[in-house]
Design a protein that fits this description.
The protein is α/β, with parallel strands linked by helices. The chain is built from 9 helices and 5 strands. Strands 2-1-3-4-5 form a 5-stranded parallel sheet, with helices on both faces. Strand 3, helix 7 and strand 4 form a beta-alpha-beta unit. Helix 1 runs antiparallel to helix 2 and helix 1 packs parallel to helix 3. The longest helix is centred in the first third of the chain and has 24 residues. The chain is globular.
Length: 211
């Protein structure tokens, strides 16, 4: 059964086998949505569960996420044709002044592995860029990352910019990164905080009532 092979390949972080098995499944006429949900998303959910149990670590999550991406690259055109309804749309970026992107990239891949459509703005994203991107992409969630205590104020500035542009009520705002805490998220009136990539996906689903 190809779906089981895809599941195992993503779980093992085998990008080559994932791509091969996804192509075999597509050629066999299995619906792209089924391949995504029962193969890729199911495997990434298990990766997240194992991470939270301490049985997988960040490098292994990253490898599995890249394997999932290899499958997604093949699935995207088919999903677009079928008008696949994503769990939601997430706009993600590392805030102004901060060039760190490994954690943000992992969150983005885990979000995609959770069925979200992800728009990645990259790193060193100024508040105005977040505002412009919200107007352009109309996301459900804005996820901001900061890896330096000195760039955490950029999160506050971005929320203020969204408020000034009358966009704050249209999106859920999530924050995360090494120095960020739940207390800080509460202080700046963010809707959610996540300590790691696995919990970020779960929190986004909770915020949208899709947990």
């Amino acid at each position: 059964m190809n779906l089981e092979s895809i599941y195992k390949a993503v779980l093992d972080g085998d990008a080559g086998t994932t791509a091969e098995e996804v192509q075999v499944a597509l050629d066999a006429g299995i619906a792209s949505e089924e391949i995504l949900t029962k193969g890729c998303i199911a495997a990434m959910s298990e990766v997240g569960r194992l991470f939270e149990l301490g049985e997988k670590f960040v490098p292994e999550m990253l490898i599995s996420a890249r394997a999932m991406q290899a499958g997604m690259n093949l699935l995207r055109p088919y999903l677009a044709e079928q008008d696949f309804e994503a769990t939601g749309k997430v706009l993600i970026g590392t805030v102004a002044g901060d060039l760190h992107d490994i954690g943000k990239n992992l969150v983005g891949m885990m979000m995609e592995g959770g069925g979200f459509e992800v728009v990645d703005l990259g790193s060193d994203v100024r508040p105005e860029r977040f505002v412009d991107a919200v107007q352009e992409h109309e996301p459900d969630v804005v996820a901001m990352s900061a890896l330096l205590t000195t760039t955490m104020p950029s999160m506050t500035a971005t929320i203020d910019a969204l408020t000034d542009a009358d966009l704050r009520d249209q999106v859920k705002v999530m924050v995360g990164g090494a120095p960020v805490t739940q207390a800080f998220a509460d202080k700046i009136n963010a809707d959610g905080y996540a300590a790691d990539a696995s919990s970020a996906t779960r929190k986004a689903k909770e915020l949208l009532g899709k947990a």
